[in-house]
Amino acid sequence: MNYKIGMKCCIFFSLITLVSACNSGHNPLRDEVVLSAKKANVKSSNPPNIIYIMADDMGYGDLGVYGQTKIKTPNIDQLSQEGMRFTQHYAGATVCGPSRASLLTGLHGGHSPIRGNPVWTNSGKPVDLKPEDVTIAEMLKANGYKTAAIGKWGLSESKEADGDDYLAAMPLQQGFDYFYGLKGHLDAHYYYWHRLFENNLAFELKNNDHMNNKGIYTHDLFTSKAIDYVKQQTSEQPFFLYLAYTIPHLALTVPDDSKEQYLDLGWPKRKMDTQGHYRNDAEGNTTYAGMVSRLDRDIGNLLETLKQQGLEDNTLVIFTSDNGHEYDRGFFDSNGELRGSKRDLYEGGIRVPFIAKWPDQIKANTTSDHVSAFWDMMPTFCDLAGGKQCPETDGISITKALLGDNEQQPLHEFLYWEFNEREGPLQAIRQGDWKLVKKFNTPAELYNLSIDISESNNVANIEPQLVAELMNKISSARTYHPEFTLKKLPNPYKKNKSTKK
To answer: Quick check: 495 pLDDT over 70?
Structure first.
């Protein structure tokens, strides 16, 4: 895989990729992106602002427009009515860290610099983004955009004790002009966490008690900062806002006002563990519904602010989720017709909602069955920004699909995922309508998604040639990474069963 910008750098950057562990921190690719943008000095006449909103562990079926009947999501449903709903969009991975890395770098799990969550590595140590990793923010910044990240980062696990590299993977070091939110992975497991960052400076919420769910609900802070950021923007310079919410990831907790509409409906009660790693509220179903509806409410407030600022008409708003759901056991049908959930490579673990609105550009109240993935966002945003030299990625711009030109929209040869935690290593590949899932020490499974979206009929035994073809592609779809070699890993949480990811 070649990740360079500009044909003249092709051989050089291929070598950089292979020896990235030896890179001292200088980023020739990043320099080339900036230099190319300056030399070309060409943008589209009026590139759109981009607001990319990501939920955390929201299932494909958790929204009204995707079939949800119990949880109310009127604002996101309205976003869909005013834009386009994709039915075959995929996350970068089935857990948050590698999924977000895939989004930001434009690389699928076989090439991404981060292919697993913290501690699920060969060494047991987390892997962070590195200076040589080029992000969407760097690309957009080189093309004249302001850039901001608000909410959950989760790609910078280094601690103060680690020394000079403590902040090396923070958003400001990865192309963002502004950051407000949670630095590390485990911090985002608590909605009353006490330590947040603004840019590279940590600050304390002194009255927050994350063990007893008291203080300021951090989700509300993210919404407030996002609204403030939009209010500061003008039509003179385009902006990119990456708004990475933590809802509805465990722990399940939400202020009581968000539960009120779901009380006294006769719902079954689901008792939650309130004293484990996740500090859940006592009853799960009303809490989960309340969390999703609070997210929906706040997205509505953000979109209203965008309209009030006169920025709506030239802003592309995208809503999605980082992977499949974890909480639901069937009451909400959070995965709809799909099989599986978070930590699966079945559709329920990786197929996610994806809604895009751009007035007068994306036709309202439309649906697309175009097969796309997180790693398509880098080339798509570069295309929309008018970039003349875009980073080489695993993605394909979906601009044509967004604008309704399906005949001219290029298609993927295949999509690839991998995952290596408790049940791993797992791999999956989708080629056309065919999906192959390979589990550890078991025969490959093959499904035809055009007639079996629930992956209930394994046809591997009657399609041996196709299985062999897809297995060969799986073998060649990934490059070597010293921390992610798809060997069986010991469970780092075995000694502390109350600690979960």
So the answer is: no
Which CATH code fits 7-105+125-412? 3.40.720.10
106 conformational bin, left if phi > 0, alpha if psi -120 to 50, beta if neither: left
Peptide bond between residue 391 and the one before it cis (omega within 30 degrees of 0):
no
Contact 75, 297 (CB under 8 A): yes
Contact between 381 and 140 (Cβ < 8 Å): yes
Alpha carbons 380 and 384: distance in angstroms, whole number: 6
* CB-based contacts of 326-331 (< 8 A; 24+ apart in sequence): 326/57, 326/249, 326/250, 327/57, 327/248, 327/250, 327/252, 327/284, 327/288, 328/59, 328/288, 329/270, 331/70, 331/267, 331/268, 331/270, 331/285
H or E, element range at 240: strand 239-244
Average pLDDT, the chain: 91
Tokens standing for residue 296: 């929906």
Q: Which residues of 172-185 are buried (b: 16+ CB within 10 A; e: fewer)?
A: bbbbbbbbbbbbbb
- Are 65 and 76 within 8 A, CB to CB? yes
| Residue 65: how many other CB atoms lie within 10 Å | 16
Helix ranges, 56-95 (H) = 74-81
Q: Is 3.30.1120.10 the CATH classification of the domain at 413-501?
A: yes
In which band, very low, low, confident or very high, does the pLDDT at 159 lie, cut at 50, 70 and 90?
confident
Buried b or exposed e, range 206-239, using 16+ CB within 10 angstroms: eebebeebebebbbebbbebbbebbeebeeeebb
CB-CB contact of 346 with 452 (8 Å):
no
pTM over 0.70: yes
How many CB atoms are closer than 10 A to CB 496? 9
Select from 417, 418, 458 the least CA-distant residue to 434.
458
Q: Quick one: DSSP state of residue 51?
A: E
pLDDT tens across 412-454, in order?
A: 999 999 999 999 999 999 999 999 999 999 999 999 999 999 9
Q: Show me where the domains of the chain are located.
A: 7-105+125-412, 413-501
Q: Which parts of 143-283 fold into alpha helices (H)?
A: 218-231
Note the Cα 394 to chain centre separation in Å: 16
Tell me how far apart the alpha carbons of residues 354 and 380 are, in angstroms, rounded to a whole number: 14
Would you call 314 exposed, middle or buried from its count of C-beta atoms within 10 A (0-12, 13-18, 19+)? middle
